[in-house]
Amino acid sequence: MNHTPVGVEPGSTAASPAAASAASAAAPRLRVDRLTVRFGGLTALDDVSFEVGAGEVVALIGPNGAGKTTVFNAVCGLVRRAAGEISLDGASAANGPTGLVARGVARTLQGLGLFDSMSVLENVLVPLESGTVRRVQHAEAAAQASGCLERLGIAHLAAVPVAALPYPERKRVALARALGTDPALLLLDEPAGGLGEDDIDALADVVREVAASGCSVLLVEHHVDFVMGVADRIIVLDFGRVIACGTPDEVRADPRVEEAYLGIEPAA
Ligand SMILES: Nc1ncnc2c1ncn2[C@@H]1O[C@H](COP(=O)(O)OP(=O)(O)OP(=O)(O)O)[C@@H](O)[C@H]1O
Questions:
Q1: How far is the centre of ligand 1, averaged over its atoms, from the C-alpha of 65 (Å)?
Q2: Could you give the domains of the chain?
Q3: Interface TM-score (ipTM) > 0.90
Q4: Which of 19, 53, 90, 153 qualifies as a cystine partner to 27, CB 3.0-4.6 A?
């Protein structure tokens, strides 16, 4: 896995010179710069900045309503930015529902969003054949989708309707569908939610392997042990602002995080 730090943002707890020089050496895979999103009078994101490097796993954590999903939606162009810039591999993203998906961003959803009556393989084929990501020949798409099912240990379920599967397998299908597009940036929305410990361990292995292959991973997750075990860096949001950013150890030791996220009052 690539552990290269790619920069330190306002509120960061990790400000090493190495991080600064790495950040300036190459454009990060994802750059979110001073992002502000408002819903009417509510400021859901307020001046949020962070970066995700190639092959890096970055976790966004924070209490309910902190703005994590809104970051994903902004990266995908599903909510309009009131201010700020988002870029992928140095190319600026339009402020609307265009561009990023075609440029190699894939996302899983909290609600999975699978087509229940379709088979596992058919679900994974949907984005490959729809032309929303890119248009590939059917044989090539089928081979790519099958490879993803193998990778996630569900090849034997290829012909099974999704409706017949238990929740952990359904989550694997959703992940396979995202990975099937061969993304440069993978957005995972609560990937460990609803899973048991064995499935979470297997998921962590997959995330590490995906990152080792060069794909960048940005994930939103409440399962603290999973986050601490898999993330290279963690960004902590609270009320739409970045309150801390650093390695798992740095974030774990930050009293602001304990106070905001874990609900622990800092020692007097
Ligand atoms: N489409 C919307 N319209 C109005 N308000 C919204 C909308 N989407 C999100 N919000 C509000 O913006 C804030 C941030 O929401 P968001 O869903 O990003 O938080 P979150 O950190 O993902 O929370 P959770 O952990 O509960 O999923 C919340 O106050 C939420 O109610």
A1: 5
A2: 1-104+183-268 (3.40.50.300), 115-182 (no CATH)
A3: yes
A4: 90
